[in-house]
Write a structure and sequence with these properties.
Residues 2-201 form the GMPS ATP-PPase domain. One of its GO terms (molecular function) is GMP synthase activity. Keywords: ATP-binding, Glutamine amidotransferase, GMP biosynthesis, Ligase, Nucleotide-binding, Purine biosynthesis. ATP binds at residues 29-35. By secondary structure, the chain is α/β, with parallel strands linked by helices. The protein has two domains: 2-199, HUPs (Rossmann fold), CATH 3.40.50; 212-320, GMP Synthetase, Chain A, domain 3. 44% of the residues lie in helices and 20% in strands. It has helices at residues 2-19, 32-45, 63-74, 85-92, 98-121, 139-144, 151-159, 165-169, 182-191, 196-199, 219-238, 248-251, 298-311, and strands spanning 23-28, 49-55, 78-83, 130-134, 172-174, 240-241, 246-247, 254-268, 271-284, 292-293, 315-320. The strands form three sheets. The protein has a five-stranded parallel sheet, with helices on both faces. Strands 8, 9, 10 and 11 form a four-stranded mixed sheet that branches. A two-stranded antiparallel ribbon has the order 6-7. Bound molecules: xanthosine-5'-monophosphate. The site of xanthosine-5'-monophosphate has 15 residues, from helix 7. Xanthosine-5'-monophosphate binds next to helix 7.
Length: 333
């Protein structure tokens, strides 16, 4: 609509005025905020924007390829993909404590991003080098960083909207979304041409599958979990709830699979199996501070469970999490 077009035009002019002929760096995570910030800044200054996408190997199925396809492929933005999965897995080996895992993932993420930024900052022939760091900070982040924060919230913020990073890198800070609420960010994203499914995706934690694999993170576990999770999400997207006419995906606030590193016995054909377990989690919430487990139809759960067990060799049991928050949290770690 025209209000949104006006808003985009205004934001574009503001970014151009602020940045001039200088260059901007942005850390793309695949999340809504950094994606919309990237699309907006790209609209404003095109080639003067360079995005760095750190793939920590703990993303969802095909997520890294989808991000690259969208930004590099369709928007023709400059995106550098850093595949750091081996580094993350190496550093996470043997670590089981959830907060320790969060710290390691957060620290490595910053390290890898900083190293890439330092390389890019160095002036190249015909360019002054990068002078700005763009972040997808939105209005609720601005408020939150003023007030009291939970331990988790601190980690969340230190992960994506990294405090102090611009200073450490000697870059000026560009935050084009800082006056917007989440809903407005989503509308802006759609108006900028980002796909609806990307912009209305459920939240995904910065540490990714790192906190959805209980205990030690292993590549084998991540690979199994990615496939189970993708089946769950696919069925939620394709199953329409008849009264609202909406897919179940849109009726829950967050849904995902969790990998449990325990083995249980099963039968398959003539044989006995001894394989891993996944738990499905789907919640409804307005603020993520409290949440109810979603009353998904049994028929949907049945289809998801049978698909996971049949299609993902290595998983022979699926459970559904019927715990609300509090006292349980949404994530299992
Ligand atoms: P919990 O598990 O605390 O989750 O009920 C509340 C919301 O926060 C998300 N979450 C995180 N997001 N880094 C993030 O970026 C984290 O370490 C983290 N831990 C939880 C969770 O997915 C849910 O939406």
């Amino acid at each position: 609509d025209w209000i949104m077009r006006d808003h985009i035009e205004e934001a574009v002019q503001a970014i151009r005025a602020q940045v001039g002929d200088e260059e901007v760096l942005l850390g793309l995570s695949g999340g809504v905020d950094s994606s919309v910030a990237a699309a907006l800044i790209h609209r404003a200054i095109g080639e003067q924007l360079t995005c760095v996408f750190v793939d920590h190997g703990l993303l969802r199925l095909n997520e890294a390829d989808m991000v690259m396809d969208m930004f590099a492929g369709k928007l023709h933005a400059k995106v550098i993909r850093v595949d750091a999965s081996d580094l993350f897995l190496r550093e996470l080996a043997g670590v089981t404590d959830p907060e320790a895992k969060r710290k390691i993932i957060g620290r490595l993420f910053v390290d890898v991003f900083k190293a890439e930024a330092e390389k890019l900052k160095a002036a190249r022939p015909g360019s002054k080098g990068i002078q700005w760091l763009a972040q997808g900070t939105i209005y609720p982040d601005v408020i939150e960083s003023g007030g009291a924060k939970s331990k988790k919230a601190v980690t969340i913020k230190s992960h994506h909207n990294v405090g102090g990073l611009p200073e450490q890198l000697g870059l000026k800070l560009l935050e084009p979304l800082r006056d917007l609420f989440k809903d407005e960010v989503r509308e802006l994203g759609v108006a900028l041409g980002l796909p609806h499914d990307m912009v209305y995706r459920h939240p995904f934690p910065g540490p990714g599958l790192g906190v959805r694999i209980l205990g030690e993170v292993k590549k084998e576990y991540a690979d199994l979990l990615r496939r189970a999770d993708a089946i769950f999400i696919e069925e939620l997207r394709s199953t329409i709830e008849p009264h609202s006419g909406k897919p179940w995906y849109d009726l829950v606030s967050q849904a995902f699979a969790v990998f449990l590193p325990v083995k249980s016995v099963g039968v398959m054909g003539d044989g006995r199996t001894y394989d891993y377990v996944v738990a499905l989690r789907a919640v409804q919430t307005s603020d993520f501070m409290t949440a109810d487990w979603a009353e998904l139809p049994y028929s949907l759960l049945k289809r998801v469970s049978s698909r996971i067990i049949n299609e993902v060799r290595g998983i022979n049991r699926v459970t559904y999490d019927v715990s609300s928050k509090p006292p349980a949290t949404i994530e299992w770690e």
